[in-house]
Each structure stands twice: as structure tokens, then as C-alpha cells.
Amino acid sequence: MLGKKDCNRLVNVICNDSYAISGRGVFKEEFVTCGGIDLKSVNLSTLESRHVPHLFFAGEVLDVDGVTGGFNFQAAWTTAYVVVEQIAKEMRNFSFIRVRVQGFFGACRCQGCRF
């Protein structure tokens, strides 16, 4: 479990970090990440963390491996769709979610962040 200081540091990185893209690899240099969030730690019907309410995972952050050729893209798109559908359901009660996030992380003051 992260303390308040570490949570605030994480929010700052998520909201403010940037990465330079210098190009792309050539054909046949595709790769897939291995490892990630253990699926036992995730509710598979919603992709919500079993340990932290309102924390969702999608794509290659999950411990799901497949062969290259589009299967990992499909897994990323499908898991993102499941997460978006679940968040949309929870947005009906947005004030609760906002209070939960502020209570957990403190009020986020990141540029462009709505929390």
C-alpha cells in the first residue's frame, strides 16, 4: 500500500510525465511485454483491482501473453472496452468517485487534470 506522499508522486508522474518518440522499428522487430498485474488480483468481468476500488487495468499492463500478429492488439482493445464500459457505469455516481480519488491521493493540481 502506498502512503500519501508516494500516491501524490504517482499522480504527478501520471499527469505530467512525457516521453519523446524517436521513430518506429522495422518490420519483424515487434515484441510483446511479459508479466504484469496478476490476473488473480483483478475482477475479470470488470478488470477492476481486487485490492484498490475504482482502479482498473487494461492492455499489456495485465499478465496476458499472446503471439504477435494482432492478438495482443485485440486483447488491449477488448480490455480497454471492458474498462470504459465499467467506468461509464460508475460515472452515474461521479461525485463519489471524485471524493474517493481526492481522499486517496489528495486534491490533484496537475495541469489539465480534472481532479
Number of strands: 2
What best-fitting shape do the alpha-carbon axes yield?
globular
Low-confidence stretches: 96-115
Please give the largest β-sheet. 2 strands, antiparallel
Q: What string gives the helices and strands in order?
A: HEEHH
What's the rounded overall pLDDT mean? 75
* Total of DSSP H or I helical runs spanning 4+ residues: 3
Kindly provide the radius of gyration, computed on alpha-carbon positions and rounded to a whole number of angstroms.
16 Å
Strand order of the largest sheet: 1-2
Strand content: under 5%
How much helix is in the residues? Answer: 25-40%
First-to-last CA distance: 21 Å
Main structural class = mainly alpha
Report on the structure:
- It is a single chain.
- The chain is mostly helical and 115 residues long.
- The two termini are 21 Å apart.
- It has helices at 4-16, 71-90, 94-105, and strands at 42-43, 48-49.
What tags apply to this protein structure?
2 strands; two-stranded antiparallel ribbon; 115 residues; mainly alpha; disordered C terminus
